[in-house]
């Protein structure tokens, strides 16, 4: 009988230890996430991406204008050469 009680007590302690370790692991994971500032970094990356999209669109418009100016200059150059 003493052996059965000892086994039950050991199992109970082991379950308590496992439960405590799992809680500690959860706390550690939450602390790592908080400490890493991953959500702030993700938000900043999204803002930077959105800002870059606007910059790319502005650059595209500028390139289109430059292409038009280039075409006009080529036309004017051809007209000057014909004279």
TrEMBL record:
Keywords of this entry: Lysosome, Membrane
InterPro entries with a match to the protein in the record: BORCS7
GO cellular component, one term: lysosomal membrane
Superkingdom as given in the UniProt entry: Eukaryota
Pfam family, one: BORCS7
Chief location: membrane
Keyword Membrane: yes
Record's subcellular location: Lysosome membrane
Family under the similarity heading: Belongs to the BORCS7 family.
Stored PANTHER family: BLOC-1-RELATED COMPLEX SUBUNIT 7, BLOC-1-RELATED COMPLEX SUBUNIT 7 BORSC7
Record's protein name: BLOC-1-related complex subunit 7
UniProt source species: Octopus vulgaris (Common octopus)
